[in-house]
TrEMBL record:
Residues 57-125, 133-204 form the K Homology domain. The lineage of its organism: Eukaryota, Metazoa, Ecdysozoa, Nematoda, Chromadorea. This is K Homology domain-containing protein. The keyword Cell membrane does not apply. Residues 23-42 have a biased composition (Gly residues). Keywords: Repeat, RNA-binding. Coiled coil: none annotated. Residues 15-42 are annotated as: Disordered. The keyword Translocase does not apply. It comes from Meloidogyne incognita. PROSITE patterns: KH_TYPE_1. GO terms for molecular function: RNA binding.
């Protein structure tokens, strides 16, 4: 997820049908998705577990965030991310990568997504310069969902804008070596979590078409970041 107070910043959440048991920043919880690790893979067991999580009322949200802001979400000694996991019965992962961006994965009950995202957005914005302007978030969505989000002649994306009072933009290029595309949502910080929830509710029942290869930011390409909606290089943070 990306919190910037200008029109160039972007952030995204998305869905991932693969699970894993690794990741130093992974948390507890009954089920775990692969949150950006390994660059794809997975099999039928992972898909089955994904649908089990959906049946249990849980959903996965994947966002692209600047690496320099990852520390704010994790907290000193991991205390902040642990508190979020406990509060929302969520699995929240921010895999460590030596690139300008990371994938933040949240798996929790759908009725908790909005409030959890609000807390994370507020925490991410702490690291940015104080501003009362708009903020934005980059959500990862499967490339086959992009057309549905835009709609015929842009009808659906216009509807989303009117419904949420936020602006939506889907980047045309996939993230490197993946089937993910960035959906940038821009608007008032108080309205963004609701906009993310509405996006999730819209795409959650649309089946994937074609290969599903979740983005791993280890494949970051500075020459392509503008095309797919990624972050420019700079301070990697910690």
């Amino acid at each position: 997820m990306n919190i910037f107070n200008n029109g160039n910043a972007q952030m995204y959440p998305g869905m991932n049908q693969h699970y894993s048991n690794g990741g130093s920043s992974g948390g507890g919880g009954p089920k775990r998705f692969r949150g950006g690790g390994g660059g794809g893979g997975g099999g039928h067991d992972g898909v089955d577990m994904y649908h089990e999580a959906l049946a249990a009322g849980k959903f996965e949200l994947r966002m692209l965030i600047p690496s320099r802001s990852a520390g704010a979400v994790i907290g000193r000694g991991g205390e902040y991310i642990k508190s979020l996991r406990a509060k929302y019965d969520a699995n929240i992962n921010v895999p460590d990568r030596s690139t300008p961006e990371r994938v933040l994965t949240i798996i929790c009950h759908q009725d908790s997504i909005e409030q959890c995202v609000l807390e994370i957005l507020n925490k991410l914005s702490e690291g940015e310069k104080a501003s009362r302007g708009e903020v934005d978030v980059k959500v990862l969505v499967h490339q086959s969902h992009a057309g549905a989000i835009i709609g015929r002649g842009g009808s659906k994306i216009k509807e989303l804008r009117e419904q949420t009072q936020c602006r939506f933009k889907v980047f045309q290029e996939c993230c490197p070596m993946s089937s993910d595309r960035v959906c940038l949502i821009t608007g008032d910080s108080a309205k963004l979590p609701g906009a993310v929830k509405i996006l999730i509710d819209f795409v959650k029942d649309i089946p994937f078409k074609g290969p599903h290869v979740p983005y791993d930011s280890a494949a970051y390409n500075p020459q392509l970041c503008h095309a797919y909606g990624g972050f420019e290089g700079g301070n990697m943070g910690g």
